Amino acid sequence: MRIVVCVKPVPPEPTLDDAGRLDRSGGAALTGVDESAVETALRVRDGVGGEVVVLAMVPPDAADALRPALAMGADRAVVVAGDALAGADLLATSSALAAALRGLGPDLVVLGAASGDGNGALLWAALGERLGLPVLSRAVEVTVADGRVRATRQTESGLHRAEAELPAVLALSGEVCVPRYPSFRDVIAAKKAVLETVTPAELGVPESELGAAGSRTRVLAAAPAPARGEAEIIEDDGDAHERVVDFLAQRRLL
Amino acid sequence: MTRRALLVAEPRSGALSAGQLGVLSALAGVAQTVEVLLPVEAEGDAAGLTGVLGRYGAGVVRVVTGLPATAAPRVAVVAALHREQPYDLVAFENSSLSADVAGALAVRLGAGVCWDLVGLDDVAGELVGRCLALGDSTAVDVGWVGGPALALFRTAALDAQELPVAGTPELVAVPPPVEVGPDVSVSEPDGAGETGRSGLDTAEIVVAGGRGLGSADNIALLEELAQVLGGAVAVSMPVVDRGWYPYAHQVGQTGRTVRPRLYLACGISGAVQHRVGMSHSGTVVAINTDPQAPIFDVCDLGVVGDLTSLVPRITALVRERSGA
Ligand SMILES: Cc1cc2nc3c(=O)[nH]c(=O)nc-3n(C[C@H](O)[C@H](O)[C@H](O)COP(=O)(O)OP(=O)(O)OC[C@H]3O[C@@H](n4cnc5c(N)ncnc54)[C@H](O)[C@@H]3O)c2cc1C
Ligand SMILES: Nc1ncnc2c1ncn2[C@@H]1O[C@H](COP(=O)(O)O)[C@@H](O)[C@H]1O
């Protein structure tokens, strides 16, 4: 069984550059939710056998951020990178990743809960549509057996169970499991491992569907969000409850 | 230019959230024709909701019955309606279901989708979405290239504005989709999330607690204060993870977004994943032992103090002043 985990390494504190694009200069790392996705994939593989491939569409200099996933036990890492991919929105990102996934032929695609910068929590739905696969989102618990994936999903209406036939797309609801800690030896081995790369031309998708050209949204302006007004900060010396209740009364909140 | 807009509604327990009515108001502000796609269990369920939809700007309500709570059939219905008569704008209030629908629709219609919207305007004939990005630190204006513009609004982010004169929407039945493509099969919620019973979606006052509670027992302190203030209890993620309180009460990125008149945060550090769920509350009061806690950056009144001693004193004083 081939399990492909989509991850997006991002700078730990992403910011926007002057053009309103995500500033990638800060050095990228896997996020906690994407580590959960890798761990989930490894557990499935350890149960039913097969291989785990980590897949990311990132600028070339972020590729090394996939090595920790190899150290955890992923079998391969594939990086989709190239100038033609810059400025991709959801539509263009899903077009590149879906093409890469078609090339890999996964039985199960696993995604994290949200990317650390874009935070759209939408990519799985776009990938499922492009690949014609069923989508199980917001999973907190996953089992794979008998050619089916079963998940407990966490939604506004509580926990419920859902299942789909493989191949399928699975997305998690957060940091749902604790990622394994790689041994020193595995970290060293992952440092030397060869990362596979896929160029935009190799995707077999017209350039008009990739990167900025394939995007249907754009950032018009970006500015620091207005802050809340000055706060009053007091210390509780045993009588702060009076200030709190007076404050609530002044604001007609009682 | 005349614009056609569609709200893909998601009634829960037979009602529409205030946030969805807020989205409807936003559509009425930028579009000449405003329609609502209303999935209901039985046809009779629609009648009770048409009145309120008319008050907030719906001209046409398209009713579809018997859809399972999965994305694929909704994607098929919206795509079919769009094929018949194209929309310029298709909007949703964010939820786990509507996000799945919007993401798939973007691909099916070749359309751009913007998310985390907290506003929508017409600027010189172009739609401009207002959103907050990077943990609410950045206000971003976004636009769409071509149509339809898919817009996913942040939960509970917009105020619903009643029209001066309520319209009487035309009710149209939509046939359920024949072909929906691959889908998942779901079981009924098992109640672990205690659907709708948190009271958070409608509460004007929210008393929230975090890991600083120290133990499940101290939840009672919040419940008592919430009770005297007439509010509901919310918690941060670690409280849910430790099993101290049910998930339905979790506020934040992976929980609910609330916008009450008062949010009282007790023993919550104010991590960005929590703040995105509460930062638009009217008044924020924070209680925390750590003067450096980031929650103090987003509050109106902050008290450096121990919640286990302060919260019961607040409860007692409110009770005393209200003469109860
Ligand atoms: C993808 C993702 C999604 C997430 N989604 C959510 C979400 O939906 N909701 C959410 O809440 N979090 C979410 N988190 C977790 C978030 O990052 C924080 O870890 C979490 O919000 C911290 O909760 P807390 O403030 O209760 O705990 P802590 O950060 O541990 O803060 C506890 C606070 O209590 C104070 N304190 C301790 N004792 C007392 C006392 N006696 N009196 C007063 N104050 C005291 C401490 O000074 C401290 O500031 C998410 C994280 C990720 C990665
Ligand atoms: N550029 C990318 N390359 C690979 N996987 C991605 C990329 N962007 C997002 N993902 C995956 O999709 C999930 C949801 O991302 P998003 O929809 O951007 O919030 C993330 O947790 C990742 O698993």
TrEMBL record, chain A:
Residues 19-207 form the Electron transfer flavoprotein alpha/beta-subunit N-terminal domain. The keyword Metal-binding does not apply. Pfam families: ETF. The keyword Electron transport applies. Heterodimer of an alpha and a beta subunit. It comes from Nocardioides aquiterrae. Transmembrane segments: none annotated. It comes from the Bacteria. Its cofactor is FAD. InterPro entries: ETF_a/b_N (IPR014730), ETF_b (IPR012255), Rossmann-like_a/b/a_fold (IPR014729). Keywords: Electron transport, Transport. The electron transfer flavoprotein serves as a specific electron acceptor for other dehydrogenases. It transfers the electrons to the main respiratory chain via ETF-ubiquinone oxidoreductase (ETF dehydrogenase). The lineage of its organism: Bacteria, Bacillati, Actinomycetota, Actinomycetes, Propionibacteriales. Belongs to the ETF beta-subunit/FixA family. This is Electron transfer flavoprotein subunit beta/FixA family protein.
UniProtKB/TrEMBL annotation, chain B:
Its cofactor is FAD. SUPFAM superfamilies: Adenine nucleotide alpha hydrolases-like (SSF52402), DHS-like NAD/FAD-binding domain (SSF52467). Residues 200-279 form the Electron transfer flavoprotein alpha subunit C-terminal domain. Residues 180-189 have a biased composition (Low complexity). Residues 33-176 form the Electron transfer flavoprotein alpha/beta-subunit N-terminal domain. The keyword NADP does not apply. Residues 177-198 are annotated as: Disordered. PROSITE patterns: ETF_ALPHA. Heterodimer of an alpha and a beta subunit. Belongs to the ETF alpha-subunit/FixB family. This is Electron transfer flavoprotein subunit alpha/FixB family protein. The lineage of its organism: Bacteria, Bacillati, Actinomycetota, Actinomycetes, Propionibacteriales.
